[in-house]
Specification:
Aspartate Aminotransferase, domain 1; 42% helix; Aspartate Aminotransferase, domain 2; seven-stranded mixed β-sheet; alpha/beta; single chain; 14 helices; globular
Protein backbone atom coordinates (compact mmCIF):
# COMPACT_ATOMS: atom_id res chain seq x y z
CA UNK A 1 0.00 0.00 0.00
CA UNK A 2 1.43 3.37 -1.04
CA UNK A 3 2.31 5.74 1.79
CA UNK A 4 -0.04 8.69 2.23
CA UNK A 5 3.09 10.82 2.59
CA UNK A 6 3.82 10.24 -1.12
CA UNK A 7 3.38 13.44 -3.09
CA UNK A 8 1.69 12.76 -6.42
CA UNK A 9 2.20 15.51 -9.00
CA UNK A 10 -1.30 16.42 -10.17
CA UNK A 11 -0.40 19.37 -12.36
CA UNK A 12 -1.10 19.02 -16.09
CA UNK A 13 -3.58 16.20 -15.45
CA UNK A 14 -6.73 18.25 -16.18
CA UNK A 15 -7.29 18.57 -12.43
CA UNK A 16 -9.74 21.30 -11.44
CA UNK A 17 -7.88 21.57 -8.15
CA UNK A 18 -4.43 22.11 -9.68
CA UNK A 19 -4.75 23.20 -13.29
CA UNK A 20 -7.44 25.88 -13.34
CA UNK A 21 -6.23 28.64 -11.03
CA UNK A 22 -5.48 31.12 -13.81
CA UNK A 23 -8.73 30.37 -15.60
CA UNK A 24 -10.55 31.19 -12.37
CA UNK A 25 -8.68 34.46 -11.93
CA UNK A 26 -6.12 33.31 -9.36
CA UNK A 27 -2.32 33.45 -9.50
CA UNK A 28 -0.64 30.32 -10.87
CA UNK A 29 1.46 29.95 -7.70
CA UNK A 30 -1.42 29.36 -5.29
CA UNK A 31 -1.30 26.12 -3.31
CA UNK A 32 -4.76 24.52 -3.58
CA UNK A 33 -6.50 23.09 -0.52
CA UNK A 34 -10.04 23.86 -1.56
CA UNK A 35 -12.28 21.51 -3.55
CA UNK A 36 -13.22 18.24 -1.85
CA UNK A 37 -10.99 15.76 -3.60
CA UNK A 38 -7.92 14.15 -2.06
CA UNK A 39 -4.27 14.24 -3.12
CA UNK A 40 -4.02 10.47 -2.57
CA UNK A 41 -4.23 7.73 -5.15
CA UNK A 42 -7.31 5.55 -4.89
CA UNK A 43 -6.81 2.03 -3.36
CA UNK A 44 -4.81 -0.53 -5.37
CA UNK A 45 -7.88 -2.77 -5.68
CA UNK A 46 -9.69 0.02 -7.53
CA UNK A 47 -6.76 0.77 -9.81
CA UNK A 48 -6.40 -2.92 -10.68
CA UNK A 49 -10.10 -3.22 -11.47
CA UNK A 50 -10.03 -0.13 -13.69
CA UNK A 51 -6.89 -1.30 -15.51
CA UNK A 52 -8.47 -4.70 -16.07
CA UNK A 53 -11.57 -3.12 -17.57
CA UNK A 54 -9.42 -0.83 -19.74
CA UNK A 55 -7.52 -3.79 -21.12
CA UNK A 56 -10.81 -5.40 -22.11
CA UNK A 57 -11.12 -2.40 -24.41
CA UNK A 58 -14.89 -2.23 -24.93
CA UNK A 59 -16.83 0.51 -23.17
CA UNK A 60 -20.36 0.04 -24.44
CA UNK A 61 -23.61 0.70 -22.62
CA UNK A 62 -23.41 -0.92 -19.22
CA UNK A 63 -25.41 -1.35 -16.04
CA UNK A 64 -25.09 -3.03 -12.64
CA UNK A 65 -25.72 -6.66 -11.78
CA UNK A 66 -26.20 -8.58 -8.55
CA UNK A 67 -22.52 -8.37 -7.57
CA UNK A 68 -22.77 -4.58 -7.52
CA UNK A 69 -25.63 -4.67 -5.03
CA UNK A 70 -23.82 -7.28 -2.93
CA UNK A 71 -20.81 -4.95 -2.71
CA UNK A 72 -23.07 -2.11 -1.54
CA UNK A 73 -24.95 -4.30 0.90
CA UNK A 74 -21.74 -5.59 2.45
CA UNK A 75 -20.30 -2.09 2.78
CA UNK A 76 -23.32 -0.44 4.38
CA UNK A 77 -23.92 -3.38 6.68
CA UNK A 78 -20.33 -3.51 7.96
CA UNK A 79 -19.57 0.20 7.99
CA UNK A 80 -22.93 1.64 9.03
CA UNK A 81 -25.06 -1.24 10.30
CA UNK A 82 -27.65 -0.46 7.62
CA UNK A 83 -29.56 -3.18 5.82
CA UNK A 84 -30.37 -1.92 2.32
CA UNK A 85 -32.68 -3.46 -0.26
CA UNK A 86 -31.94 -3.63 -4.03
CA UNK A 87 -35.23 -2.02 -5.06
CA UNK A 88 -34.35 1.13 -3.12
CA UNK A 89 -31.37 2.03 -5.31
CA UNK A 90 -31.34 4.67 -8.02
CA UNK A 91 -27.96 5.43 -9.59
CA UNK A 92 -27.09 9.00 -10.57
CA UNK A 93 -23.92 10.73 -11.84
CA UNK A 94 -23.51 12.57 -8.55
CA UNK A 95 -25.12 13.69 -5.33
CA UNK A 96 -25.70 17.29 -6.45
CA UNK A 97 -27.44 15.91 -9.52
CA UNK A 98 -29.59 13.74 -7.23
CA UNK A 99 -30.47 16.73 -5.05
CA UNK A 100 -31.64 18.66 -8.11
CA UNK A 101 -33.63 15.66 -9.33
CA UNK A 102 -35.26 15.36 -5.89
CA UNK A 103 -36.12 19.07 -5.81
CA UNK A 104 -37.74 18.93 -9.25
CA UNK A 105 -39.57 15.64 -8.70
CA UNK A 106 -40.79 16.08 -5.12
CA UNK A 107 -41.69 19.79 -5.03
CA UNK A 108 -43.33 22.34 -7.32
CA UNK A 109 -41.95 25.64 -8.56
CA UNK A 110 -42.33 28.24 -5.81
CA UNK A 111 -42.31 25.65 -3.00
CA UNK A 112 -40.06 26.30 -0.02
CA UNK A 113 -36.96 24.21 0.66
CA UNK A 114 -35.04 24.56 3.94
CA UNK A 115 -31.28 24.23 4.47
CA UNK A 116 -29.01 24.74 7.47
CA UNK A 117 -26.37 27.34 6.70
CA UNK A 118 -23.44 27.65 6.64
CA UNK A 119 -23.66 24.60 4.41
CA UNK A 120 -22.29 23.13 1.17
CA UNK A 121 -23.10 25.91 -1.28
CA UNK A 122 -24.64 23.82 -4.11
CA UNK A 123 -27.59 23.15 -1.78
CA UNK A 124 -28.66 26.79 -2.00
CA UNK A 125 -27.88 27.21 -5.70
CA UNK A 126 -29.79 24.02 -6.51
CA UNK A 127 -32.87 25.37 -4.77
CA UNK A 128 -32.68 28.76 -6.46
CA UNK A 129 -31.82 27.50 -9.94
CA UNK A 130 -34.87 25.25 -9.85
CA UNK A 131 -37.16 28.17 -8.97
CA UNK A 132 -37.89 27.12 -5.43
CA UNK A 133 -37.90 29.38 -2.37
CA UNK A 134 -34.78 29.06 -0.21
CA UNK A 135 -35.41 29.07 3.54
CA UNK A 136 -32.44 29.18 5.92
CA UNK A 137 -32.26 27.66 9.39
CA UNK A 138 -28.93 29.10 10.52
CA UNK A 139 -26.79 26.90 12.73
CA UNK A 140 -25.79 28.31 16.12
CA UNK A 141 -22.06 28.92 16.62
CA UNK A 142 -21.10 29.17 20.26
CA UNK A 143 -17.85 28.41 22.13
CA UNK A 144 -16.26 26.97 18.99
CA UNK A 145 -19.06 24.47 18.29
CA UNK A 146 -22.17 24.35 16.13
CA UNK A 147 -25.64 23.26 17.16
CA UNK A 148 -29.14 23.32 15.66
CA UNK A 149 -31.76 25.94 16.42
CA UNK A 150 -34.71 23.54 16.51
CA UNK A 151 -37.30 26.18 17.40
CA UNK A 152 -36.26 28.29 14.41
CA UNK A 153 -36.24 25.16 12.22
CA UNK A 154 -39.85 24.29 13.04
CA UNK A 155 -41.09 27.88 13.03
CA UNK A 156 -39.70 28.46 9.53
CA UNK A 157 -41.14 25.19 8.25
CA UNK A 158 -44.59 26.23 9.44
CA UNK A 159 -44.36 29.89 8.38
CA UNK A 160 -43.07 29.07 4.87
CA UNK A 161 -45.01 25.84 4.33
CA UNK A 162 -41.70 24.08 3.65
CA UNK A 163 -42.00 20.96 1.49
CA UNK A 164 -38.44 19.62 1.53
CA UNK A 165 -35.41 19.69 3.85
CA UNK A 166 -31.85 19.13 2.59
CA UNK A 167 -29.88 17.62 5.46
CA UNK A 168 -26.08 17.57 5.43
CA UNK A 169 -24.85 14.64 7.53
CA UNK A 170 -21.97 14.69 8.40
CA UNK A 171 -22.08 18.41 7.97
CA UNK A 172 -19.95 20.20 5.40
CA UNK A 173 -18.31 22.62 6.24
CA UNK A 174 -18.75 22.82 10.03
CA UNK A 175 -17.71 19.20 10.62
CA UNK A 176 -20.53 18.11 12.91
CA UNK A 177 -21.48 14.43 13.09
CA UNK A 178 -25.04 14.77 14.28
CA UNK A 179 -26.09 12.73 17.31
CA UNK A 180 -29.04 10.36 17.43
CA UNK A 181 -30.97 12.85 19.55
CA UNK A 182 -30.39 15.69 17.08
CA UNK A 183 -31.33 13.63 14.03
CA UNK A 184 -34.44 12.17 15.66
CA UNK A 185 -35.60 15.62 16.72
CA UNK A 186 -35.15 16.93 13.17
CA UNK A 187 -36.93 13.89 11.75
CA UNK A 188 -39.87 14.17 14.12
CA UNK A 189 -40.39 17.80 13.14
CA UNK A 190 -40.32 16.83 9.46
CA UNK A 191 -42.81 14.01 10.05
CA UNK A 192 -45.11 16.31 11.97
CA UNK A 193 -45.28 18.83 9.14
CA UNK A 194 -45.11 16.54 6.10
CA UNK A 195 -41.61 17.56 5.02
CA UNK A 196 -39.59 15.25 2.74
CA UNK A 197 -35.92 14.88 3.71
CA UNK A 198 -33.06 14.69 1.21
CA UNK A 199 -30.14 13.48 3.33
CA UNK A 200 -26.71 14.10 1.82
CA UNK A 201 -24.50 11.51 3.53
CA UNK A 202 -21.60 11.52 1.08
CA UNK A 203 -19.07 12.14 3.90
CA UNK A 204 -20.47 9.28 6.00
CA UNK A 205 -17.23 7.25 5.97
CA UNK A 206 -15.17 10.06 7.52
CA UNK A 207 -15.67 10.34 11.26
CA UNK A 208 -13.06 10.93 13.95
CA UNK A 209 -12.58 8.87 17.16
CA UNK A 210 -15.51 9.18 19.52
CA UNK A 211 -18.03 9.90 16.76
CA UNK A 212 -20.19 7.61 14.62
CA UNK A 213 -22.24 8.41 11.58
CA UNK A 214 -25.88 7.38 11.83
CA UNK A 215 -27.97 6.81 8.71
CA UNK A 216 -30.90 9.20 9.12
CA UNK A 217 -33.41 7.01 7.26
CA UNK A 218 -32.57 4.06 9.52
CA UNK A 219 -33.28 5.76 12.84
CA UNK A 220 -37.04 5.21 12.64
CA UNK A 221 -39.08 3.28 10.04
CA UNK A 222 -41.13 6.44 9.51
CA UNK A 223 -37.98 8.36 8.57
CA UNK A 224 -37.16 5.88 5.84
CA UNK A 225 -40.58 6.52 4.35
CA UNK A 226 -39.92 10.25 3.86
CA UNK A 227 -36.21 10.19 3.00
CA UNK A 228 -34.02 10.24 -0.09
CA UNK A 229 -30.55 9.17 1.11
CA UNK A 230 -27.70 10.33 -1.09
CA UNK A 231 -24.44 8.33 -0.96
CA UNK A 232 -21.41 7.80 -3.16
CA UNK A 233 -18.01 6.10 -3.02
CA UNK A 234 -16.48 9.18 -4.64
CA UNK A 235 -15.43 11.15 -1.54
CA UNK A 236 -14.35 8.04 0.38
CA UNK A 237 -12.13 6.64 -2.38
CA UNK A 238 -11.30 9.80 -4.39
CA UNK A 239 -13.36 8.88 -7.46
CA UNK A 240 -15.30 12.09 -8.15
CA UNK A 241 -14.69 12.24 -11.91
CA UNK A 242 -16.03 8.70 -12.39
CA UNK A 243 -19.51 10.04 -11.62
CA UNK A 244 -21.28 7.31 -9.70
CA UNK A 245 -23.68 7.83 -6.80
CA UNK A 246 -26.11 5.47 -5.11
CA UNK A 247 -29.37 7.04 -3.99
CA UNK A 248 -31.62 5.04 -1.64
CA UNK A 249 -35.37 5.69 -1.64
CA UNK A 250 -37.44 3.11 0.30
CA UNK A 251 -40.78 4.81 -0.39
CA UNK A 252 -42.10 3.47 -3.71
CA UNK A 253 -44.07 6.61 -4.58
CA UNK A 254 -41.12 8.93 -3.95
CA UNK A 255 -38.80 6.58 -5.85
CA UNK A 256 -41.14 6.48 -8.85
CA UNK A 257 -41.31 10.29 -9.03
CA UNK A 258 -37.53 10.51 -8.68
CA UNK A 259 -36.93 7.95 -11.43
CA UNK A 260 -39.37 9.69 -13.77
CA UNK A 261 -37.59 13.03 -13.36
CA UNK A 262 -34.20 11.36 -13.80
CA UNK A 263 -35.49 9.86 -17.05
CA UNK A 264 -36.76 13.25 -18.22
CA UNK A 265 -33.24 14.60 -17.74
CA UNK A 266 -32.01 12.11 -20.35
CA UNK A 267 -29.89 9.99 -18.00
CA UNK A 268 -30.03 6.20 -18.14
CA UNK A 269 -27.04 3.87 -17.70
CA UNK A 270 -24.12 4.89 -15.47
CA UNK A 271 -20.45 5.23 -16.40
CA UNK A 272 -18.93 1.73 -16.64
CA UNK A 273 -15.74 2.90 -14.91
CA UNK A 274 -17.84 4.25 -12.05
CA UNK A 275 -19.54 0.87 -11.71
CA UNK A 276 -16.22 -0.98 -11.72
CA UNK A 277 -14.59 1.41 -9.25
CA UNK A 278 -17.52 1.44 -6.82
CA UNK A 279 -17.78 -2.35 -6.78
CA UNK A 280 -14.04 -2.76 -6.23
CA UNK A 281 -13.83 -0.08 -3.55
CA UNK A 282 -16.74 -1.40 -1.51
CA UNK A 283 -15.46 -4.96 -1.84
CA UNK A 284 -11.76 -4.47 -1.11
CA UNK A 285 -11.18 -0.92 0.14
CA UNK A 286 -11.94 -1.16 3.87
CA UNK A 287 -8.34 -1.66 5.02
CA UNK A 288 -7.13 1.25 2.89
CA UNK A 289 -9.86 3.47 4.31
CA UNK A 290 -8.88 2.54 7.86
CA UNK A 291 -5.29 3.60 7.22
CA UNK A 292 -6.44 6.77 5.48
CA UNK A 293 -8.57 7.80 8.45
CA UNK A 294 -5.60 7.34 10.77
CA UNK A 295 -3.51 9.56 8.51
CA UNK A 296 -6.21 12.22 8.33
CA UNK A 297 -6.47 12.22 12.11
CA UNK A 298 -2.72 12.78 12.22
CA UNK A 299 -3.13 15.70 9.83
CA UNK A 300 -5.85 17.11 12.04
CA UNK A 301 -3.63 16.83 15.11
CA UNK A 302 -0.79 18.53 13.21
CA UNK A 303 -3.09 21.36 12.14
CA UNK A 304 -4.46 21.82 15.65
CA UNK A 305 -1.00 22.10 17.20
CA UNK A 306 0.31 24.37 14.43
CA UNK A 307 -2.53 26.83 14.96
CA UNK A 308 -2.17 26.70 18.73
CA UNK A 309 1.58 27.24 18.73
CA UNK A 310 2.18 29.41 15.67
CA UNK A 311 -1.12 30.89 14.47
CA UNK A 312 -3.25 31.66 17.54
CA UNK A 313 -5.12 34.32 15.56
CA UNK A 314 -6.93 31.51 13.68
CA UNK A 315 -9.19 29.14 15.61
CA UNK A 316 -9.91 25.55 14.65
CA UNK A 317 -13.56 24.55 14.73
CA UNK A 318 -12.98 21.04 16.04
CA UNK A 319 -14.34 18.63 13.40
CA UNK A 320 -16.14 15.43 14.30
CA UNK A 321 -16.13 14.22 10.70
CA UNK A 322 -15.12 14.95 7.06
CA UNK A 323 -11.65 15.94 5.84
CA UNK A 324 -12.81 19.53 5.29
CA UNK A 325 -11.83 21.71 8.21
CA UNK A 326 -13.56 24.96 9.17
CA UNK A 327 -11.27 27.74 10.37
CA UNK A 328 -12.48 30.80 12.28
CA UNK A 329 -10.37 33.63 10.87
CA UNK A 330 -12.31 36.47 12.49
CA UNK A 331 -9.31 37.18 14.73
CA UNK A 332 -7.44 38.54 11.70
CA UNK A 333 -9.85 41.46 11.61
CA UNK A 334 -10.68 41.39 7.88
CA UNK A 335 -14.01 41.65 6.14
CA UNK A 336 -14.80 38.84 3.70
CA UNK A 337 -13.30 40.44 0.60
CA UNK A 338 -10.10 41.46 2.37
CA UNK A 339 -9.80 38.04 4.00
CA UNK A 340 -10.17 36.29 0.66
CA UNK A 341 -7.61 38.62 -0.92
CA UNK A 342 -5.22 38.05 1.99
CA UNK A 343 -5.46 34.25 1.70
CA UNK A 344 -4.89 34.28 -2.06
CA UNK A 345 -2.49 37.16 -2.66
CA UNK A 346 -0.52 37.33 0.58
CA UNK A 347 -0.55 33.69 1.74
CA UNK A 348 -0.57 32.17 -1.75
CA UNK A 349 -3.31 29.69 -0.86
CA UNK A 350 -6.48 28.59 -2.62
CA UNK A 351 -9.06 27.78 0.04
CA UNK A 352 -12.86 28.07 0.13
CA UNK A 353 -14.07 31.37 1.55
CA UNK A 354 -16.68 30.96 4.26
CA UNK A 355 -19.20 33.41 2.84
CA UNK A 356 -19.97 31.11 -0.11
CA UNK A 357 -21.55 28.68 2.38
CA UNK A 358 -24.21 31.21 3.32
CA UNK A 359 -25.34 32.85 6.54
CA UNK A 360 -22.86 32.42 9.35
CA UNK A 361 -19.95 31.68 7.02
CA UNK A 362 -18.53 35.18 7.16
CA UNK A 363 -14.99 35.33 8.56
CA UNK A 364 -14.30 31.62 8.00
CA UNK A 365 -12.20 29.61 5.56
CA UNK A 366 -12.59 25.92 4.65
CA UNK A 367 -9.40 23.92 4.19
CA UNK A 368 -9.01 20.42 2.75
CA UNK A 369 -6.55 18.38 4.87
CA UNK A 370 -6.68 15.26 2.66
CA UNK A 371 -3.14 15.74 1.39
CA UNK A 372 0.39 14.60 2.32
CA UNK A 373 1.48 16.23 5.57
CA UNK A 374 4.34 18.01 3.82
CA UNK A 375 1.81 19.88 1.66
CA UNK A 376 -0.27 20.78 4.70
CA UNK A 377 2.82 22.03 6.51
CA UNK A 378 3.85 24.09 3.47
CA UNK A 379 0.39 25.69 3.32
CA UNK A 380 0.31 26.50 7.02
CA UNK A 381 3.82 27.96 6.88
CA UNK A 382 2.74 30.22 4.01
CA UNK A 383 -0.21 31.34 6.12
CA UNK A 384 1.98 31.92 9.17
CA UNK A 385 4.44 34.04 7.20
CA UNK A 386 1.63 36.13 5.75
CA UNK A 387 0.11 36.77 9.19
CA UNK A 388 3.51 37.79 10.59
CA UNK A 389 3.81 40.44 7.85
CA UNK A 390 0.40 42.00 8.55
Amino acid sequence: MESFDTIVDRRNTDSIKYDFAARRGLPEYVLPLWVADMDFRTPPCVIEALVGKSRHGIFGYSDTREDYFEALRGWFSKQHNWDIKPEWIVKTPGVVNAICIAIRSLTEEGDAVIVQQPVYHPFSSSVRSNNRKLVVNQLIYSDGRYSIDFDDFEEKIVRNNVKLFILCSPHNPVGRVWTREELVRLGNICLKHGVIVVSDEIHEDFTYPGHRHLVFADLRPEFGDITVTCTAPTKTFNLASLQISNIFIPNQKLRRKFREELSRSGYSQPNIMGIVACRAAYTGGAEWLGELKKYLYGNLNFLREFLKQRLPEIKLVEPEGTYLVWLDCSGLGFDDKRLEDFIIQRAGLWLDSGYIFGKGGEGFQRVNIACPRAILEKALTRLENAVKKM
